[in-house]
Amino acid sequence: MTAGLPLDELYDDLGPGGIATGAGMRVYARDSWPQALGWDDARVAAHAPAAVLRPATEEAAAAALAWASRHGVALVPRGAGSGVLGAAIPSRAGAVVLDSARLKGFELRADAEEPVVLAGAGWLGGELERRLDMLGWSLMNFPQSMEDSTVGGWIATDAFGQLSTRYGGVRAQVRGVRVADLDGTVRRESAAPHLGAEGTLGAIAEVALRVRRRPGSRRHYAYEFPGPETALEWAEEAMRKNGPPSVLRLYGPVDAFFNGLKRAGPSSSGAMRERVEALLLKRTGWLNALAPLLGRKWVAVAVYEDEDPYRDAAPPPARGAADLGEGPSRRWWDRRYHLSKERLERTFAAGGFVDTADFWAPLDLLPQVDEAVRAAIRPTP
Ligand SMILES: Cc1cc2nc3c(=O)[nH]c(=O)nc-3n(C[C@H](O)[C@H](O)[C@H](O)COP(=O)(O)OP(=O)(O)OC[C@H]3O[C@@H](n4cnc5c(N)ncnc54)[C@H](O)[C@@H]3O)c2cc1C
Questions:
Q1: Helical residues (DSSP H) of the chain, grouped into ranges
Q2: pLDDT reported for residue 1
Q3: 1, 93, 337, 340: which has the fewest C-beta neighbours closer than 10 Å?
C-alpha cells in the first residue's frame, strides 16, 4: 500500500519499473500550461500524483484502468506533458498518472494500399520519425513540439503540425486507435471520438497513422510583401495552384523579426537571439513600443517537397514582393522545433511569459483581426 492505494495488486500486471512513487512525482504535477509553469513549490507539490503507472503493454494499461475503476482512483493518462491546457495535471489528491512512455510497439505496413505505421502511444514524434526515416518513410504530422509530444497525445489533443497546409491535422492521418478501457478490455476503435477528448474516454495504447515515402528533396522560397493584404492574396493563389505546398507560413513584422526571416543572409547566433528575446520578454512594454517601428511588411516562407503528384509544383509569382531567396525559409526549417518545452520552461524561469492564441477568420478579414488582437493585448504588462 502507498498513500492508501492498493498498488500491490498491480505489481504482477505492470512488472518491474511499472510503478513509481515518492521522489520524482513532482515532474508529473504539471504539463506545459503557461499558468502552471509559474507555480511555486507548494502549488507544484499539491498537484503531484500519488503514483505513476507505466504499463509496457496494452493489457497492462487495461489492467491499470480496471484497477483505478475498481478502487475509485482518479487516473490521468499522460504522454510527454507538452499539452498547454493543463489537462494532464492531476487535480485531485490521491490521483495517479498513467504514463504512456513504455508503450512502444512498432509495425510498419508499407505494402498496404494505404501505408500505415501502428505505433505504441508512447512514441515521441521525433523518435518515431527517425525510426521511419531509416526505413525510407515519413510521418505527416509535425507539431512544433515534435521532440516533446507523443502520438497518443496527438490524438487526445487533436493536434495539428507544420505540414498541415498539405496533409491536414492528425485527424486526417489517423486510421484507428487501440484503446484500453475502464472495464479492463482493449479495443480497436475509430479515432473519431478520441480526437480532442483529452483522455476522458480511455487510454490510447496504439495509433495507426498514415505514412508517406520520405521526401528526397525540398525547395525553399521566401518573399517580403508590402503588407498583409498582398501576402494573403499570394498565399491564397499558392494554395490553389498545383495543390498546397508542404509548408506555407506568413509572418507579420514582429514575428518575422523574432524568427530572423527579414534577411536573405545567414542567421545570427542562436545564443545571442535567445538573450535578446529573454530581455524583450521581460520588458514587454519595450517590445510593444518597438513593434510599430518594424513597419507593415510581411514575410512568407514556402517549402515544396519532391513527392508526387506535386513534383513540379512551385509558388506563383509574388508580384510586388521582394524575393528573399531561399535563406529565410531554410532558416525557418532548421529552427522549426526551436520553441521546445524545455526552452519554454527556461523562458518562464527567466521571468518571461509566452502563450499561444489561435484565431480564425475569412482571409479578407485576417489583417483586421490581426490588428485588433494585437491592439487588445498591447497594454498587457
Ligand atoms: C513548445 C510547444 C509547441 C507546441 N506546438 C504544437 C503544435 O505545433 N501543434 C499542436 O497541435 N500542439 C502543439 N503543442 C501542444 C502539445 O504539444 C500537443 O497538444 C501534443 O499533442 C500533446 O502531446 P503530449 O504527449 O505531450 O500530451 P500530454 O501533454 O501528456 O497530454 C495532453 C492531453 O492528452 C491526454 N493524453 C496523453 N496521452 C494519452 C493517451 N495515451 N491516451 C489518452 N489520453 C492521453 C492527457 O490526459 C491530456 O489531456 C505545443 C506545445 C509546446 C510546449
A1: 11-14, 34-37, 41-46, 58-71, 125-134, 151-157, 164-167, 228-240, 253-258, 270-282, 284-290, 327-334, 341-349, 366-377
A2: 45
A3: 1
Counting atoms of ligand 1 from 1, which one is nearest the CA of 198? 49
- Region 198-211 average pLDDT: 98
Whose C-alpha lies nearest to ligand 1, atom 3? 145
Q: Where are the domains of the chain?
A: 7-102, 106-213, 218-377
- CATH architecture observed for domain 106-213: 2-Layer Sandwich (3.30)
- If DSSP codes are grouped into helix, strand and coil, which group holds residue 69? helix
Instruction: List the alpha helices (DSSP H) in 77-170.
Output: 125-134, 151-157, 164-167
Of the candidates 127, 115, 134, 182, which has an alpha carbon nearest to the alpha carbon of residue 151? 127
Give the model confidence (pLDDT) of 120-161 as tens digits.
Answer: 999 999 999 999 999 999 999 999 999 999 999 999 999 999
CB of 122 within 6 A of ligand 1: the answer is no
CATH architecture of 7-102: 2-Layer Sandwich (3.30)
- Determine if ligand 1 sits within 6 Å of the CB of residue 160: yes
Lowest mean pLDDT among 11-15, 99-103, 310-314, 339-343: 310-314
What is the rounded CA–CA span in Å between residue 39 and residue 255?
28
Tell me which residue has its CA closest to atom 5 in ligand 1: 144
Instruction: Check if 152 has its Cβ closer than 6 Å to any atom of ligand 1.
Output: yes
